[in-house]
Design a protein that fits this description.
Blueprint: H1 3-8, E1 16-19, E2 22-25, H2 30-38, E3 45-50, H3 56-67, H4 76-82, H5 91-94, E4 101-105, E5 119-124, H6 127-140, H7 151-160, H8 168-177, E6 184-188, H9 189-194, H10 196-207, H11 209-229, H12 232-237, H13 239-247, H14 253-258, H15 260-275, H16 291-295, H17 298-311
Parallel strand pairs: 3-4, 3-5, 5-6
Antiparallel strand pairs: 1-2
Helix pairs in contact: 3-11, 4-13, 6-7, 10-11
Family: Belongs to the sulfotransferase 1 family.
Domain Sulfotransferase: 44-238
Protein name: Sulfotransferase domain-containing protein
Length: 324
């Protein structure tokens, strides 16, 4: 199938909510998204900014552990309180969370109120691996109503930029352009995989000298805790369950009254049950580098190369992965 045929066939699409010309998960609501994009950051805010499926969960886990002396959240409530997802947290709750605080967001910088007060950690991942992980992400959450969608469908939407949080390269190039700002730390998922210890130390140093020294004190006891509790094995056994509990369930009526996200989720989950949608896989899956090379067909690899050339004609951003 050539490119013209691919673009002309009917593509199955996940269900999204549109806000400001950008797509978001269907359980989002306009009011919270409006508050998130207008939020004026304050000192003590630590944003982990990523395009979806580029190492967000891992990076936020590391930051949270550094801030809390290596102690991980052990319940869903504790997890989503100490690592709030800005696009899905009502501002009333968000504003009450003590600072310093690790804040997760998939918003690109140009959709946020950028400020010198907070700290920003941007994590980038090679697009070939990102798109594969993205497909499994959509299969995990039944509220995307994409259980019948194929990888070919998702790949086509990805290279068109018709996915959650917009075009991959628009997001990446925005982050890359800010990498030299004094309050921005730019990392790649691949470098974190290659040397987790160095990644933790780099993040701690960026957060403040006191955090860096704390990790190295007492024979690195806290650093070893950070490494242990941000490991793939630990997060699979805990964080996966937190996301299932919060986002693949019908919330108690009382919780729905105070939180529009939980209200929307519960409504969607009832529809999921009626339609027989299924959830497959895990939120945290393989955590590896290079899966895209195996999964993408030769035509898709060529399509991706063309997409990269088109979007990065005036940037050296792909030098981040020159060794891959």
């Amino acid at each position: 199938m050539d490119v013209k045929e691919e673009m002309s066939r009917e593509i199955r699409k996940p269900r999204y909510l549109e806000f400001g010309g950008m797509l978001f998960p269907a359980e989002c609501c306009h009011e919270i998204l409006r508050d998130a994009t207008n939020y004026k950051p304050e000192k003590g805010d630590i944003f982990v900014v990523t395009y979806p499926k580029c190492g967000t969960t891992w990076a936020t886990q590391i930051v949270s552990l550094i801030l809390n002396n290596g102690k991980p959240p052990m319940t869903a409530k504790e997890y989503f309180t100490c690592i709030p997802f800005m696009e899905m947290t009502p501002m009333e709750e968000f504003s009450k969370i003590p600072r310093p605080c690790c804040i997760k967001t998939h918003l690109p910088f140009d959709r946020m109120v950028f400020s010198a007060e907070p700290k920003y950690i941007y994590v980038a991942r090679h697009p070939a691996d990102c798109v594969v992980s993205y497909y499994h992400h959509l299969q995990f959450f039944p509220t995307y109503f994409f259980s019948n969608g194929t990888f070919d469908d998702l790949f086509e939407l990805f290279v068109r930029g018709e996915v959650e949080n917009g075009d991959y390269f628009d997001h990446l190039l925005d982050g890359y352009s800010r990498r030299k700002e004094p309050n921005v730390l730019f990392l790649t998922y691949e470098s974190m995989i290659a040397d987790p210890r160095e990644a933790c130390l780099k993040i701690a140093h960026f957060l403040g000298e006191e955090y860096y020294k704390n990790l190295l004190n007492n024979d690195e006891i806290i650093l070893q805790k950070v490494l242990k509790y941000s490991s793939l094995e630990f997060m699979k056994s805990t964080v996966n369950e937190f996301w299932k509990e919060q986002f693949i369930s019908i919330a108690p009526e009382e919780d729905q009254k105070s939180n529009p996200i939980l209200r929307n989720l519960s409504r969607l989950m009832k529809e999921v049950m009626e339609k027989g949608e299924i959830s497959e896989g895990k939120f945290i899956r393989k955590g590896i580098v290079g899966e895209g090379k195996v999964v993408l067909s030769e035509k898709q690899r060529q399509r991706l190369r063309n997409y990269i050339l088109e979007k990065t004609a005036h940037s050296d951003v792909m030098s981040l992965w020159k060794d891959l």
